[in-house]
Amino acid sequence: MIKHAHLNTYDQLRPIKIIALAACFSTVLTACSFQKYVAKPIEPSTAIAKFELKDPFGKPFIEYLSINGYTSDELPVRQWGLDELTYCALFFHPSLDVARAQWRATQASGARAAQRLAPTLNGNLAHSDDPDPSKKPFAFGLSIDIPIVTANKREIRIENAQHLSKAAKLKIAQIAWQLRNNIAQTLTEYAFNETQLHLLHIEELRHEEIVNIYQKRVSVGVASNIELSNAKLRLQTISSTVNSAQQTKLILLSKLASNIGVPLANVVTMSLDIDQKRPEYNLTNTELQTTTLLNRLDIRIALERYAAAEAKLKLEIAGQYPDLVISPGAAYEFGDNIWSLGLSGLLSLLNKNKVAIAEATMLREVEAAQFEDLQTKVILEANIANAEVIQAKKALENQQRLLAQQQSNTQRMQRKFTAGDIDRLEMTYAQLEVINAEKNVALANFQLNKSLDQLENTLQKPLASEVSASSKSVNAAFNLEGEK
User: Fold this and answer.
1) N or C: which terminus of the chain carries fewer CB neighbours within 10 A?
2) Burial annotation 2-11 (CB, 10 A radius, 16+ → b, else e)
3) Measured distance CA(16)–CA(162) in Å, rounded
4) What's the alpha-carbon Rg for the chain, to the nearest Å?
């Protein structure tokens, strides 16, 4: 601390007065901008009421679709496909609100990291009981501590905050994609359930015909009651399966309502488009891996986390150089006017922040290892998903071939029935065989669509080579261009 230099004139008290006035003025200005605490309690009943008001047919959502590329001819939505339901989730689902709030919190942290350290005002007042009349009984002083951040620490903190903010922003897109994938899987299950119900109803009718035939035969004595009972048991089994499929339909609608974040009553009234054609794709293993690594949001998040770890290491290395505080001041001490200039800093030159640097280095190594593990995992997942698609395609082709053979056989049976060579019971059983083959095709098609959904989720990119206008808007929403 450097002290001294006596001032003898009254005018030399002016620096102290100026500093005091500046301090008072700044205090008044700061006091004018004080914020008050405002309580914001959560009312569960209000949250429930807010959820019930979420309406995909309402004006706010229609305006949202207009902003994202839908024309007036397409609104209101009449057929709800994957794109429209995804927009529903982007607009209504609360998990996105949580992710957006977390992103805004990281932005606030970035703004705080960019703030410069404010000077500190120090003052003191003293009184002496010394009876010496040559000394003044009072002493007062005023000084300002001006911090100086060295080694670009502020810029490094900003860099770290920016990477964390980007990771949080990508998290929004990741949740948006997950919602889309959940909707796609539910639509696939719903389409399969609708096909099942259609075929089961036809099968139920055929079994009713068989029961009626046996009832007539029993009445004329050409069939036994055992045959009739067996036919009735098979009819009961099919009827039970139909009821189970109808219950599954309601469960899937409830699941879809959960995926898009609206009440079930609204989803029940939607006309779902389940006949959308699945895209064809032809990707080599190299193209598959490249597409996966370029589109996976978790990989991009991991890269931002690694960059944040690097910034943290840079900050600890910069911590080897201490920040400085310059403290100019003036004092009046028992009749003497004194100015001072202080310089202080944390004495970190001895250990050079070695422990913190070693810790930050290890954390960076952890992030690097996690990134490599994620990359390997993603590549393996893509290969498995691609293999499942190939296998499902072969299974579907095989079932379609069997169905064609069975249809050809049934046509031959139909000709025999028309010629009177076989009876109605035999013809009905032949029709049941076709229905069974159609059910196998429907199951194989469901497995293929399910594997395609999984491959899309692994790639985190729609498989369609030519994406529709609404799909492009959905992709833009995943990149946060379509936020509310």
Assistant:
1) N
2) eeeeebeeee
3) 42
4) 38
Its pTM stands at 0.82
* pLDDT for 111: 86
What is the Cβ-side half-sphere exposure of residue 148, based on CA atoms within 13 angstroms?
11
Number of H helices, E strands in the chain: 13, 5
Mean pLDDT of 268-281: 80
User: Beta-carbon neighbour count of residue 63 at 10 Å?
Assistant: 12
Main-chain phi, psi angles of 222, to 5 degrees: -105, 5
Task: Please say whether the beta carbons of 142 and 122 come within 8 A.
Answer: yes
Long-range CB contact pairs, 12-15, < 8 A, 24+? 12/337, 13/332, 13/337, 15/330, 15/339
Report angle CA 218, 224, 225 to the nearest 5 degrees: 85
The mean predicted confidence, pLDDT, of the chain is 85
Instruction: Return the structure tokens found at 103.
Output: 């992103």
* Cα 256 from Cα 12, distance rounded (Å): 80
- Specify whether the CB–CB gap between 99 and 178 falls below 8 A: no
- Per-residue confidence band for 125, with pLDDT thresholds at 50, 70 and 90: confident
Which residues have CB under 8 Å from 325's CB, separation 6+? 145, 146, 147, 148, 342, 343, 344, 345
Give CA–CA dist 67/59, Å, rounded.
12
144 touches 329 (CB < 8 A): yes
Asked if 338 and 330 count as a contact pair (C-beta separation under 8 A), the reply is yes
Domains of the chain: 2-26+44-471 (1.20.1600.10)
Q: Tokens 């095709």 sit at which residue?
A: 441
What are the φ/ψ torsions at residue 152 (nearest 5 degrees)? Answer: 55, 35
Distance CA 334, CA 349 (A): 39
Q: What is the pLDDT of residues 191-249, one digit of tens each?
A: 999 999 999 999 999 999 999 999 999 998 888 899 999 999 999 999 999 999 999 99
